[in-house]
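Hi R.,

Here's the chain you asked about this morning:
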Amino acid sequence: FSTGGNAFATANARNLRLNAATAVAHGLPREVALRALTLGAAEILGVAEKLGSIEPGKDATFFSCDGDLLETPTKVTAAWL
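And here is the predicted structure, written out as tokens:
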């Protein structure tokens, strides 16, 4: 993942889930927020043919969390690449 040298964008990538959660809290449909975090992001980065959705032949990261992914107190507890 390259940000073209933009350290600000890289440093804030960890906040994407929390930004999506905030958007949902203000009325964005959950499905739209989840797509933005997955397939939408892959499309923007030009890697949707290999990432962003669960399909045969695509790479995936599976994770578990201790609550609803789009609730701000939720923490990811494990991830498998």
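One quick note: The radius of gyration is 13 Å.

Cheers,
M.
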